[in-house]
Amino acid sequence: MSPIMNFPKVAVIMNEFADSADIESRTINVTSADNPDALSEEVLELANGCLCCSIKDSGAAAIEKLMRKRGRFDYILLETTGLADPGQHVRDCGMTVFLMGCRCPTGPIASMFWENESMSDCIYLDGVVCVVDGVFGLETIGNPDHDLSLGARQIASSDVVLLNKCDIASQSSIEYTERLIRSLNVAATTIKTIKGEVADLRAIIGLAAYASAPFVEIPQSSPHEHGEDEGHVHVHDDQFDGISSLVIPLPSLTASQGVKLDQWLQSVLWEGQLPWHTSLEQHRSVLPSLIPPLEILRCKGIYSTRNEEPHAQRSGNTYVIQGVRNLYEIRAVGDNESPKGQGKLVLIGRWKGHPVSQSLSSWLGVSDI
Amino acid sequence: MSEPTSTPSTVTTVTSAVILCQSDNCANGKPPARLECPTCHKLGISGSFFCEQACFKQNCRSKSHKKVHDAANSTVAGPFNPFPSFRFTGSLRPAYPLSPRRAVPDHIPRPDYAEDGIPYSEQKGYSAPIKILNETEKQAMRVACRLGREVLDLAASHVKPGTLSYMPPTIERGAYPSPLNYRNFPKSVCTSVNEVICHGIPDQRKLVEGDIVNLDISLYYNGFHADLNATYPVGKVAEESEILIRTTRQCLDEAIKICRPGALFRDLGKAIEPIARANGCSVVRMYTGHGIHNLFHCLPNIPHYAKNKATGQMKEGMCFTIEPMINLGKNYDVEHWPDEWTAVTVDGKRSAQFEE
């Protein structure tokens, strides 16, 4: 057994409406009875209805309280209401919060935990895990009447997608759903499961999806990849609710271009505006007003800066970009996580119709994006 | 008043979760409790919660809890501590009963929460973009803030050993004291003594030579809220307290210096935290500065610590508070008294704050 399988305690926080909480908690207790040695689980209930609707703080604060009171938990599993939908993982010195199936978009919850990370030394956002029903998932994601973007948004903000019921869903349905998930979110790992069983828990726990290290594991290729065609913008055509992934390669940047990139992200993520270099200002007016506004749900990126001083000892730094909705962070990482010269920016959200990569290249003053 | 990190409507829910069973010898290890003692409720003593009926009964029978009622009922007895079994982090104790709630004359316009404590418009406005004030609004804001400064300076002139928390002359200026009944806050001003970080409730405790006290004045005038505070020494204070107050003031000043259109909200904390650290202090993270205008608390959120992910940049016409809370020592954590408001340091060390 891997060490991570031996974690001593999981706190399960239910974020469930009162009626069904009891049923849910029984389900979870059964699970723990199955593995009495490996898992000792505890069920809590958040009184205030839906976590994301009731306020950012109560969730984060409740978890922190829980930690302080019974600091021996290794992981917290936070599960939210309703649909068999995605989730979120908050890691905490070996502790994980896991949000699954919430009626509200996952993004706000993820950003809530990520934003509040600094409030506690021991809790941090590990990642978002989403369960997609292999049989009915398509209907949820694809049905425009179904709160439109909910399913798509949840997949868009996930780091791992569990494609469940693979035993009873048809092969073609699974393949199609998988392709769909990938077009929505090229950066997420999809794992096929039966009855929700994950063979290796490391696939969903300890993701560190909001930390720097594992970012480089983001797949280099995509279903639409054209061989070794670096420098090509991979646009995924299959879209649901206008949400899809965009991968923009980033060349090695100068320090000042690094600052420009930061400004570009501010404009895009905070203001929903593509910034343009003044000489290309006319692009702004070209946009027809019918195009839905630019909205980025999740972004990840890695790039390196080059040292411009001649005879410099060091080659420059590598930076990782992480963002959920309008929150983002650029963090310097060690050289061993260097993207081997090939930086990139992954944007997941509604960007179709907006000349995103043109804006970025003009803003950075590079021609070859 | 400061804003808990993230949206404001958490205040009550977060802190109510904090109330542990008040039994002296709780068999269940003092879990968070929801059953309130009915006698205490009637007497207006908040925070008397028990985890279960058995715990409550046992405490009443052993008379340890009845002392609380007796103290409140007695007219001759002096101030009493309403939370005798609460493990306080420092030496400060509440001195109840509180004075009667201040009546605000009808002619003074009041914010929407004045009646039932719920800030409806704030809750609605929380996801709205940051308001840009026009010239008229800016002017109204200036007037409110000038009144606020006047009230704070007047209140501060009464800070000396032996005085009670001062009742701010807000109503006399035709303004509503914003804290009054905001999410059921019982008083018109927050007075935070020594280890109290913020949101201290003025009670019967007299100031003592060597104390430090923060007066946080907020008022609502002509449709706009003003909010400012400062920490004052009571008589002669220890050098450590002097350093704390000076450091906190400097933190605020340096943060204000970087404010201009185009500056990033996230950079304020980067101006504040290094100063605090260099002086052996830490920056409280749980509470933040906030937008302020027609609403008491709104976007933007202004974290005061360095490693924050605050979004947005400052633009002409925005109005917000910066109000760093700085603790002596390394611990920036916050604990709450059972009154659901008083935020104290977990190690009992002192904390100061300035806000403009």
From TrEMBL, chain A:
Gene3D superfamilies (UniProt xref): CobW-like, C-terminal domain (3.30.1220.10), P-loop containing nucleotide triphosphate hydrolases (3.40.50.300)
A Pfam family recorded for this sequence: cobW
GO terms under cellular component: cytoplasm
Signal peptide: none
UniProt cross-references to SUPFAM superfamilies, sorted A to Z: Hypothetical protein YjiA, C-terminal domain, P-loop containing nucleoside triphosphate hydrolases
CobW/HypB/UreG nucleotide-binding domain residues: 9-91, 107-190
Protein's recorded name: CobW/HypB/UreG nucleotide-binding domain-containing protein
Automatic annotation (TrEMBL), chain B:
Its EC number(s): 3.4.11.18
Cofactor note: Binds 2 divalent metal cations per subunit. Has a high-affinity and a low affinity metal-binding site. The true nature of the physiological cofactor is under debate. The enzyme is active with cobalt, zinc, manganese or divalent iron ions.
Entry cofactors: Co(2+); Zn(2+); Mn(2+); Fe(2+)
Subcellular location, record wording: Cytoplasm
Gene3D superfamilies per the UniProt record, alphabetical: Creatinase/methionine aminopeptidase superfamily (3.90.230.10)
Main EC class the enzyme belongs to: hydrolase
Domain called C6H2-type: residue spans: 18-76
Residues the record lists as binding a protein: 199, 297
GO BP field: proteolysis
Binding positions for Zn(2+) 3 per the UniProt entry: 216, 227, 355
Binding-site list for Zn(2+) 4: 227, 290, 323, 355
Swiss-Prot/TrEMBL keywords: Aminopeptidase, Cytoplasm, Hydrolase, Metal-binding, Protease, Zinc, Zinc-finger
Catalytic reaction annotation: Release of N-terminal amino acids, preferentially methionine, from peptides and arylamides
Record GO cellular component, one term: cytosol
MF GO annotations: initiator methionyl aminopeptidase activity; metalloaminopeptidase activity; zinc ion binding
PANTHER family linked to this entry: METHIONINE AMINOPEPTIDASE, METHIONINE AMINOPEPTIDASE 1
Subunit structure: Associates with the 60S ribosomal subunit of the 80S translational complex.
Functional note: Cotranslationally removes the N-terminal methionine from nascent proteins. The N-terminal methionine is often cleaved when the second residue in the primary sequence is small and uncharged (Met-Ala-, Cys, Gly, Pro, Ser, Thr, or Val).
Protein name: Methionine aminopeptidase
